[in-house]
């Protein structure tokens, strides 16, 4: 009866002070009485009940104080108590480890059946058939995140469904393109919602990949370098969409389907003979060395002759040429260092 007694014991009273003429002084006051709470009988008799405390790690009360309070029910009231929490977060507090030995008898880890959960999540989107070819990719990416947060997975699938439904069949019929786009959205959602990156960080990923190439020169790992290690299948330098579009999707929930469709049509998955050469060059990893040289010379010539007028095109081409220049000089620098080292030991 101790728990129920604490809830219903006595009448709660408070005094409300009123400033009538706004002079900063209290001119009147009134007492407010809150009547006893009429609890149902099953809450008044708690002797056979189990107390469940959920989301312990999110409680604003200090962990030691909270567990001390709960311990009162266990030791003095002989209640059975279940704590539901992310223990990895609790273990960051050294006091928790000490209190755990005294308070907590058994610890169980709940591991969801991902296949069953994924079936439920995809059915919630009402597009199960669309996701069927990509279930292995979804499970693999979810596992690689190592967060085990099903809420984030569900939100990512709902967001991707909104995006996919606004795209034309010409885009969604490409299974490779859809898989690539889905993988990126999953990764960004997991990392952003877990607080590892922000949506705005995506703007720096191009530069991150650039510095990743020079990892032997700079020891500090960039955010994208860490993501590449964590998700080996992530496509280097292929965000598919401009960073601004990703930020709108992930941070603001805005889907500019016209611009998104235009950019997806310019990816290597939907490239055609009508595709401008600078876009073909953008997907340089798909070309032979000979084709790459031809495209580079042609695009660079047109660039110097000021034939590109669209600001977005100029921005992309400038960045691409800087990337090629940097990579070429980096190889030369490594070659000079190797030759210098050889001469030292002759």
From TrEMBL:
KAP NTPase domain sequence ranges: 41-164
Cited Pfam families: KAP_NTPase (PF07693)
Protein origin, superkingdom: Bacteria
InterPro entries (alphabetical): KAP_P-loop
Protein name: KAP NTPase domain-containing protein
Source organism of this protein record: Pseudomonas chlororaphis O6
């Amino acid at each position: 009866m101790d728990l129920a007694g604490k809830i219903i014991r006595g009448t709660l009273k408070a005094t409300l002070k009123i400033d009538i003429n706004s002079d900063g002084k209290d001119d009147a006051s009134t007492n407010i009485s809150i009547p006893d709470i009429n609890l149902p009988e099953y809450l008044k008799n708690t002797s056979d009940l189990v107390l469940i405390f959920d989301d312990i790690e999110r409680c604003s009360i200090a962990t030691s104080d909270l567990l001390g309070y709960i311990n009162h029910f266990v030791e003095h009231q002989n209640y059975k108590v279940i704590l539901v929490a992310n223990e990895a977060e609790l273990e960051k507090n050294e006091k928790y480890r000490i209190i755990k030995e005294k308070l907590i008898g058994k610890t169980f880890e709940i591991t969801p059946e991902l296949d069953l959960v994924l079936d439920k999540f995809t059915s919630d989107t009402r597009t199960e058939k669309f996701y069927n070819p990509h279930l292995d990719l979804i499970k693999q990416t979810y596992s690689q995140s190592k967060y085990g947060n099903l809420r984030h997975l569900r939100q990512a699938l709902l967001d991707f469904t909104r995006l996919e439904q606004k795209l034309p069949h010409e885009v969604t019929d490409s299974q490779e393109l859809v898989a690539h786009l889905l993988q990126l959205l999953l990764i960004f959602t997991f990392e952003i919602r877990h607080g590892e990156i922000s949506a705005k960080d995506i703007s720096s990923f191009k530069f991150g990949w650039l510095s990743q190439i020079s990892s032997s020169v700079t020891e500090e790992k960039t955010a994208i370098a860490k993501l590449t290690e964590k998700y080996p299948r992530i496509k280097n330098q292929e965000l598919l969409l401009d960073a601004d579009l990703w930020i709108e999707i992930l941070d603001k929930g805005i889907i500019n389907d016209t611009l998104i469709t235009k950019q997806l049509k310019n990816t290597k998955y939907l490239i055609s003979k009508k595709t401008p050469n600078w876009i073909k060059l953008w997907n340089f990893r798909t070309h032979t060395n000979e084709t790459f040289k031809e495209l580079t010379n042609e695009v660079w010539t047109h660039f110097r002759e000021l034939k590109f007028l669209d600001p977005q095109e100029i921005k992309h081409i400038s960045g691409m040429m800087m990337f090629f220049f940097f990579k070429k000089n980096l190889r030369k620098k490594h070659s000079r260092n190797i030759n210098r080292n050889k001469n030292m030991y002759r």
